[in-house]
Amino acid sequence: MTTTFEDEARAALAAKSDAERQLAAAANCPPWRHAAFAAIMAVIVTSPAVPLPARLLLIVGTLLAMAVIVRSDRKRMGMFVNGYRRGKTLFVSFAMLAIDLSLYAYNVWTSEEGGSTGIILAVGALAFVVSAIGSIIWQRVFARELGA
pTM of the prediction? Predict the structure, then answer.
């Protein structure tokens, strides 16, 4: 008995759906991963409180931390999923980016106006919370998009 084109297409679509569900399950991040991302964003948002030469070292440190996260994801899951992928996750990424950039801009303004370091640190703590929640939401949207 020969397989029809429609049967082959159904089998291919079923295989694709299975692969997407497996990908969504593999991309389930542990809590430390969300916290690590949030910490990176909080450091960036808080960086205006630090004098310029040290601020550059903070930025280098965040870039290194991002590389460690990418490497960890690849080791743990066999892949790294970019947060700026198309689909509904992109809206989550842009919302987080808009909030964190606004908090960063506020901290730059506060720093330039001679504002309190305590305020800058509090805004950084807010960035941590926003980024951690955003990371969790992003993961849930990603899993939902893949049918998990």
Answer: 0.81
